[in-house]
């Protein structure tokens, strides 16, 4: 009987509380913080998981403050990136765009946090952080596009009830794969009567198949090219840098739409003169030789580009942030063997966050925090999505139809998308392409706000971008919470 009671208690989750504070614009904001797990129930109130989270709310206030639910991507990663990178009361200092010295890492007050504007809930999907299945559930019940959307949607609904925030202004904030998730979760919740005031996307992708360089998909080459050009511009490998990065990229967009796209469409129907003209322009904009583009038949994947751009200097460039460079481990290799940006950014983010989690937030040291589900045995993601299946075949990986439907059914829904010019993980021209194919009328399309930064996938490691991110998110919450 005692063991059964003990098991039942464990299935309810464990929450650890602490007092935190953050100074923003010279004003101290005191916070009640809780971290740990709460029991997640299915639609019939059957316990299915322990959901990990961290929650910050302003101390001693009756104000019905907005609430932001935030998560990272992967799939499948915990929310430590956003937590100690830009949203929480503390942030880790990194040596952008270079490697940060090993521990001890410096953690400082985060004057760019959103906690002066809203309460914050950082969500760790099942299999990450402290989150795990319970009862009859298994990890695979949560590891998939639709399974993940459902579990995050259930968590948000149940958390709103727990905190009595159903009538507060509500926001979803996702990064990377979390943006694809956020589109699905927004529609999932809206279909159940839970309407968001706004959706914030950092490093957005809504059509995953366009990032994967699949056979026969020329769109992926087109949407990556402006980011190749931005990368070459940064590393001084272009023929003419123009007046600014923005003006340079406007020219690149025009070339991509008016010359590069038709060339790919024509295939072997191009004349030799046309092929040479296009190849030369590809070289001038990208910093990769005309001969390379011709050998590649105008189709260069991101990993090939990382390896080729600075090959003559013995370096390779980053995927998460192409401002970063690293040692090219094999100068004969066609594909990059590592991501210098990930190698540089991940260790200080994880190291500093775990120290903050177990010490400042007082999380139980008997609990293992899992940053990424991919480190678990037998991790496998189910890429099927109900909105993409035709003839019983999954034709794409896209939640663009989810977001389109949600916006058309709720014309008050606003979307803020923050893009890094040097992000080669989720390229800015890709989400531009997606938005331009949503079929929104001009008035409704105004509900999508695009912002750009001279940074990469983790926008917030770039010091000049942090105040701009803060200002853009603040303005968005102010405008949509009234």
UniProtKB/TrEMBL annotation:
Q: Does the keyword Ribonucleoprotein apply?
A: no
Which InterPro entries did the record assign? AB_hydrolase_fold, Peptidase_S10
- What biological process terms from GO does the record include? proteolysis
UniProt keywords, alphabetically: Carboxypeptidase, Hydrolase, Protease
The record ties this protein, via Pfam families, to: Peptidase_S10
MF (Gene Ontology): serine-type carboxypeptidase activity
Instruction: Give the highest taxon in the source lineage.
Output: Bacteria
This chain belongs to the protein called Carboxypeptidase C (Cathepsin A)
* Protein's organism: Algoriphagus boseongensis
